[in-house]
Hints:
Elements: H1 2-14, E1 24-29, H2 39-45, H3 50-60, E2 69-76, E3 82-86, H4 91-99, E4 114-117, H5 118-128, H6 139-153, E5 155-158, H7 163-195
Parallel strand pairs: 4-5
Antiparallel strand pairs: 1-2, 2-3
Amino acid sequence: xxxxxxxxxxxxxxxxxxxxxxxxxxxxxxxxxxxxxxxxxxxxxxxxxxxxxxxxxxxxxxxxxxxxxxxxxxxxxxxxxxxxxxxxxxxxxxxxxxxxxxxxxxxxxxxxxxxxxxxxxxxxxxxxxxxxxxxxxxxxxxxxxxxxxxxxxxxxxxxxxxxxxxxxxxxxxxxxxxxxxxxxxxxxxxxxxxxx
Length: 196
């Protein structure tokens, strides 16, 4: 019995500790990492030095336009150090920028909020292919993924796009967006009256 106990003790010493901590996954605006919520509490829960993280993140994203949302992955080590991985902006951000709209459609399948060409999709796919999760995927697979993302945003993908017609489309779209905002505001006010 004593030999088996001795073996177990020696095995405990040999076995490495298994890390069960999960990666912190969040979107942080480029150059705008601050210690306040929502980022500060997330880092504090994982015992990361918040000021050092914010300084490091802001230095790494100094060459990117401020305010662009960047998917960030943080792996925390046992000695409170961290490994920071910053990905390219989300596909929906690129698609909305290419279409020239600030927000997607409220009812994506039924309404169109913008249009982009296949060339836009290809260029976005080339940028997104640099991301670690998509490194091993072909451009064709990434383009298919981007087409689905564009559809969920309410953005139509066309072969050719006339600038003059698209400008008129965006002007009409602004009026529709204003009407939708008024409807949402009326719903909020009606809800406030019911709860008061």
